[in-house]
Amino acid sequence: MKNTAVTIIVPVYNVESYLEKCVESLMQQTFKNFDVVLVNDGSTDASGALCDTLAQQYSQIKVVHKENGGLSDARNKGYGLITGEYVMFLDSDDYLSPNALELLYGFAKENKCEVVQGGFYYAYPTYLLYDNRWFQPNTQSFTLTKEEAMAELIKNNYVKNFAWGKLYSSEIVKQFEFPKGKFYEDSFWQHLVIDKVTSFGVVPYPIVYYTQRNDSISGAFNKKSIDLLQGLEQRFLFIQKNYPSLVTDMRKVLLKTIRLHYSRATKNSEPGIREIFETYLNEVADRIKITPFEKFQIKNSILQEISSLPKRIFLRIFGKKAIIIKR
């Protein structure tokens, strides 16, 4: 029996209207040496039964049913069923292009990469959007060193924070579980994985269709958004200890994100949300030594918005426009 090249872990929670399309995109891959782990995370709709039906239909699929514990817990549950040299995480409402695994796995093996990131479309009901600020659809694939990949993760340009859409060395992934009970879990996790690579591949060709939903956690702002700040704070402390040359850039990103979230919190009508972010700001100011002036800037974000207005106007007029493809 040949070894499995790729294991794809798909957490499933109340996605009965999306799951079949996701799985069909996997079964239509031009690269065939993979298996799929569907982790039913206590769905209350027909998703669990659909997982079983799909497993009966396709021999490559294994199903795990568990009590609801969130996305991180579902991904972690799939760790025990990883058989592949590489592992991919795919959200159950997203789907892949037919050549996705062929491109990622081929590049990983050819260039001895522990991680390879693919490009993606934002998939709306009537159109696809490709963010071409950093890549064109025909940009050539390339590799980064660990230090380069970490620097790009901080910038969030070439290297993206999300766990999905990448091929990871299973040996590395198994060292780091996702933080249970946290939203924006990738911000706690991604830098730990990149710290273990020697070669990070980027294949900019859009191979993932990232479905845009109105009820998406990643697109919403509420008290759960505090987890993103906590994840980035942990990343800052990690960078401070292990990558001193990147501390300044990471600090700027963290402070900018805190400022953005604090501003949103002050405008949010959800009871108690302003107090939550006010408390966090006071606590994080001690932990990462935020100066009184920096704190003033965070609390008075309107000044930053005014000062950045000329740049935003320039980019709106002369900056690259995203590529939109009608469906």
Describe the structure.
- There is one protein chain.
- This protein is of the alpha/beta class.
- It has 13 helices and eleven strands.
- The protein has helices at residues 19-27, 47-57, 71-79, 100-111, 146-155, 170-173, 186-194, 226-242, 247-267, 273-287, 292-299, 301-307, 309-318; strands spanning 6-12, 34-41, 61-66, 86-89, 95-96, 115-123, 127-130, 142-144, 166-169, 200-211, 323-326.
- Helix 2 (47-57) links the parallel strand 2 and strand 3 (61-66).
- The longest helix is centred in the last third of the chain and has 21 residues, at 247-267.
- It is globular, with a radius of gyration of 20 Å.
- The termini are far apart.
Give the SSE layout.
Elements: E1 6-12, H1 19-27, E2 34-41, H2 47-57, E3 61-66, H3 71-79, E4 86-89, E5 95-96, H4 100-111, E6 115-123, E7 127-130, E8 142-144, H5 146-155, E9 166-169, H6 170-173, H7 186-194, E10 200-211, H8 226-242, H9 247-267, H10 273-287, H11 292-299, H12 301-307, H13 309-318, E11 323-326
Helix pairs in contact: 7-8, 8-9, 9-10, 9-11
Relevant terms:
327 residues, alpha/beta, 11-stranded mixed sheet, 43% helix
